[in-house]
Amino acid sequence: MTKILGISGSLRAHSYNTALLRAAQALAVPDVTLDAATLHGIPLYDGDVEQREGLPAAVTELKQRIVESDGVLLVTPEYNSGIPGVFKNAIDWLSRPSADIARVFGDRPFALVGASQGGFGTILSQNAWLSVLRKLGARHWSGGTLMVSRATQVFDENGAIRDEAISRQLGDFLRGYAAWIDGARR
Ligand code: FNR
């Protein structure tokens, strides 16, 4: 069984990215468990707070879930052609203390998907993530891409994918990513 942790980078209740993560879970890919994590409860990074109190509980908890996973799927929105602050902020916390980076990120297989309301489906934020993952020593699966554009047309009012081609692409993406993780473990 390949254990993937998906993290949605949006806090919105009706987030398209959270809906994408839920749709991925609903696909129930054989031999893959896909757990979902949110960024709720993670405060803004503050070096004084870190020095005084250590890591916030929400960060420690997410860190532990990453460490227990075989791979991490970042489900990223795009804000102003880049990574949303809440998502980058969470990763910054997770990279503290720096002595922990290798355990949390080092060689861990990461993959990126995302949904946006614009026409380019998070291509710029996904691209911006690459340098962050490289800095943290994570491995990035580049064997597939999923960039969901025009999200208002792709999801219905309940957050389910109504575009069958996107649903198929999502399944292909997950199977490919899980096979890559699996191959690397052997
Ligand atoms: C956006 N949005 C957006 N979309 C896009 O395709 N390219 C972009 O650069 C931006 N920039 C941007 C900035 C800010 C501050 C906001 C709030 C929004 C629109 C974005 O794709 C849309 O709000 C998505 O619905 C956000 O993802 P969630 O919250 O639905 O997961």
TrEMBL record:
User: Keywords for this entry?
Assistant: Flavoprotein, FMN
The cross-references to Pfam families, in alphabetical order and at most eight, read:
FMN_red (PF03358)
| Gene Ontology CC entries for this record | cytosol
**Cofactor names:** FMN
* SUPFAM superfamilies, per database record: Flavoproteins (SSF52218)
Q: Which residues form a coiled coil?
A: none
* MF GO annotations: FMN binding; oxidoreductase activity
Ranges of residues in domain NADPH-dependent FMN reductase-like: 2-152
Q: Which PANTHER family match?
A: CHROMATE REDUCTASE (PTHR30543), NAD(P)H-DEPENDENT FMN REDUCTASE LOT6 (PTHR30543:SF21)
UniProt-recorded name of the protein: NAD(P)H-dependent FMN reductase
Q: Which organism is it from?
A: Dokdonella fugitiva
